Amino acid sequence: MRNTPVTWPRAELSGGVPSTGRRFALLMGGNELALSRGELLLGRSRSCQVIVEDMLVSRHHARLLVSKVALFVEDLGSTNGVIVNEVPISGPTPLHDGDRIIVGTQELVVRAVDDGIETLEPPSPRVSQPTPKAQPSVQLAAVVTRQQPTQPEVPAQVTVPMVRAPEPSVYPSEGGDTTQRTEKADGLLTMARMADRMIAMGRHDAAARLLGDHLKGVLAKAKQGRVVPRDVLDTVGVYGLKLSEVTHDATWANLAIELHSMARRPLPERAVGILELLLLRLPELDRQLLLRFKAALRDAADNLSREEWTLVERILKMPTR
After folding, report:
1. 47 FRET partner, CA 20 to 30 A, in 144, 169, 175, 269?
2. Residue 55 — pLDDT band, cuts 50, 70, 90?
3. What are the structural domain ranges in the chain?
4. What CATH number does domain 22-164 carry, 2.60.200.20, 3.40.718.10, 2.60.120.340, 3.30.420.340?
């Protein structure tokens, strides 16, 4: 986490600045959490004022800047980023009533009201019950008030009731076997599922903006010599081809092909099917890159399984002109 002083961005509010100020809250899982004014850290660490227990949330993931008239969120260099209204943010970003924030696998909705019109009361303190290990869960906690103590003042914590986390991340591999996915793949898969929803709504460019930097990041690390886990490789393969299919932009298919060429592994079956169609529809696909991909697969023939070789044979038959 960056240890930098708070710099308050300029508040630009539609409709002018309320004379009585505003109060802000976060809604999650049907629970409303009022935010105190000032700087609030959000993350997995117990030192944060807003605690989100999710393995895809960094210890110090983001900070919220809460003033009398405005609310901002800033990513603190987290692994999986902060997404506001389906767009990854960079720098302090203003938040308005109804905005949706995604950190890890959790969605938080912003609520903002003018003072004197409606009062946002923090939830009553609750004692959370231990959660069985077989049923992972997510807990959101925040320092929202300070009680008047008889002893030295201690921040009062409000714990929102437990919310079920996603089921354990076990998915079928291309070969049909069940494999445990890596944490990195789960983060990428979370973004990919959001992209699926955008694609279903016809928001193809938004899906590309959401996933694009993640796909480029995987390729960049591979070029630095890092080993890309097989589950990450498969996810990049499928969604790289899928993005090119819906956006008619060859960038993402070329990226997926380049990554698999470096790994000397065939694209997943679903991606191979899309590539066969795109070669007929998308002339911008890099045919020279496809030639190099074929050569890499031939060189790796002895290390490929029978199922992989079936995919290789389909790739080798693809036209390169």
Report:
1. 169
2. confident
3. 22-164, 170-316
4. 2.60.200.20
Q: Please state the pTM of the whole predicted model.
A: 0.56
Stretch 75-101: mean pLDDT: 90
